[in-house]
Amino acid sequence: MPLVNSLVHRLDPTLDGERLQLTLSPSPASSDASMSQLVNALNDTYNTKPKGWGRFVEEGDAAGPFAVWLHEYQDSTRDFAALTSAMAERLIATLGEQLSVGGYLVFGHLRQGDTDTLFMALAHQREGIGIDEGHQAAPAVLLNTSQLTLALRINLSQWQEGGASTQYVSFLKDRGGKKLGEAMADFLGMQEGIDAPAETRTLLKAFSDYVEKEEFDEAASREKTDTLVDYASEQLKRGEPITLETLSELVDESAPKAFYDHIRNLDYGLSPEIPPDKKTLSQFRRFTGRAGGVSISFDSHLLGSSIEYDENQDRLIIKQVPKQLKEQLVKRKS
């Protein structure tokens, strides 16, 4: 994404290792190709990581200064250097105890179409090998853009629009970093509003119910499952949420509102926009098989819950028989 502004500050542990020392950038970073490549590489890594989602707390003790700073930045009464230095100083004050290593705080104001975002990531150095001017191998210091321990992103456009959105702020929430995640929420002055794994699981459950209700054949079910996963995976790569209305149009072009109406009519409690969870999506595919007059097809996430596989006796146990099939079996038995 194109860079509007960018800047890099440095964090270093003090000699006693008990706190971090901030060294501000002496001048704004140029938004050249190298800086753009760095910010976008960090942003791409961030897209693939588990995140906490939410919005700024507007009142009370939990409300932080971010909304004020961002308003001043948008109104040009606070420049990018002042904004990022204030963020860096607040980070040290609220997260200093949670960070044991330093690095470079990379800030970027990115613009893609009509959407503006503010991105921040703590990038660490790693030792590497390069080629010097004499064409000889030589030690080189590189920034590690593939691993992140701290990062955040604010959708400035969505925040300015206001409304009922609960997910214009996100931050890195990797496993094992619960305290850091809680400290990040305090640092941002935000409240979490979306549980991405739970929302993604509910969406997939709604989709499975929809496929069963509409009684699509095996080929159509597989095609629609692939459509859902492909769209969700693409949104994950872009760092954008799944939009239910768009997904509904893709799942069934002949009835573009059908899946959306199914979700609303059965009240699954889903938000209009859902941040996709990578791990949950990776487990969602369909198992299919046909032999000896038997055709079986089911969503992979049902394995271990409503469907069990007994490998020793080579059999499937279906705990929840589809209504239509159940009616046929009962009728045949009688």
UniProtKB/TrEMBL annotation:
Subcellular location: Cytoplasm, Nucleoid
Coiled-coil ranges from the UniProt annotation: none
Pfam family of the protein (one): NA37
Key words, A-Z: Cytoplasm
PANTHER family the record matches: NUCLEOID-ASSOCIATED PROTEIN YEJK, PTHR38772
Family per similarity comment: Belongs to the YejK family.
Protein name: Nucleoid-associated protein
